[in-house]
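Consider this:
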Amino acid sequence: MIDMSKLIVAGCSVSDYTNVKKVWGEYLAEQLNYEYVHEAAGCGSNYRMWRVLTTHILNGNITANDTVVVQYTTLERNEFWSPIVENDWLRDPAFNGNIIRFKSGSHTWAKGSEKKLMKLYERFINDDFEKEKFANNHMMFQCLAKEYKIKNLYFVKLGAYGLEDLLFLPQYKNNFFNYSNIFDKSENHITNDRYHLSDIGHKLLSTMIYNNIKEST
């Protein structure tokens, strides 16, 4: 019996189940006839994407037969380990505690010492430094994927999330799909929320990515 190829999607809330029952990654997996692995998360950071995907690769859960799509998010986001354990969709249980997610303004909903941490951390963010760190980690992740012969690695930009001027290794130079305008039409985003896709938007995006993948291969 041959294992089915997998589609692994990493991203933030725009690729997660944000007021929808089915995400573009699921639709895309159906079009490709692949097993779907969902690694997008609300308030997720680029560091979370690199960490989770790298762990999958090192553990052999992502192989050369699989397809990986990375939806980068804003650069200031990060994640921290906390000894406080709570059942919260913004947390991942790990290492006898929780990994908590940070983005600008996250101190407004955090509590206790975590609230203090996030509010203080926000004072120590520099945009140019974040861009340098992002560029370096983005390139290192590509090198890892190349080393493990993961040729079907794609990157997508949705709306204002992520950057447009990304550097790529030669084998991935045609694997960047820019959908900066996807939220322009009201039917593509949730009512009164121009930052998250509607059901129509998720279906549309899956078809666009499917067509772009076929064109790039």
About this structure: The longest strand covers residues 6-11. The chain has a mean pLDDT of 96. The first helix runs from residue 24 to 32.
